[in-house]
Amino acid sequence: MMMAVLIAVYLRNRLETGRLPSILTLYFVGGAIAWIPAQIVARLAAGRARQETRFAAQFVSLTLFTIGFTALIFALDYRGFYAQWHAPTFTYIWFLQQFYTIGGATYQFAVIGLPLFLPVGLPLLIVTSLWQARDIS
User: Fold this and answer.
1) Which residues have C-beta within 8 Å of that of residue 77, sequence separation ≥ 6?
2) pTM of the model
3) CB 133 within 8 A of CB 51
4) What pLDDT, in 10s, does the model give residues 7-28?
5) Cis (ω within 30 of 0) for the bond into 115?
6) How far apart are alpha carbons 13 and 24 in whole angstroms?
């Protein structure tokens, strides 16, 4: 996913950003953390079913886990930045601030972060899902 993001940033003529190493690290870690849970869930869901079913399970699982973990890491980093202005820990206001801060981060990731998976991420996802769905007998 890091390479997909690097190519997407290059195609948008944005390689000059000073935040490029942070962005690439975010997507690398999100994809790396998502790999094992995605494989476990896909194999539990499809087992030894037909190859089409295993492909679908891999595709959905890899998509959801990669986006989910990358968004979670982004939201935690976002929350960490804004924590200095939050109310004391475990107060009612603090819980509201956590909710809205993480909600705002998730929205920002959906609008700004998800498009970085395209155009390279989708073909890579399809190829990886096909590779993982191959006959295992």
Assistant:
1) 26
2) 0.89
3) yes
4) 999 998 888 888 999 999 999 9
5) no
6) 15
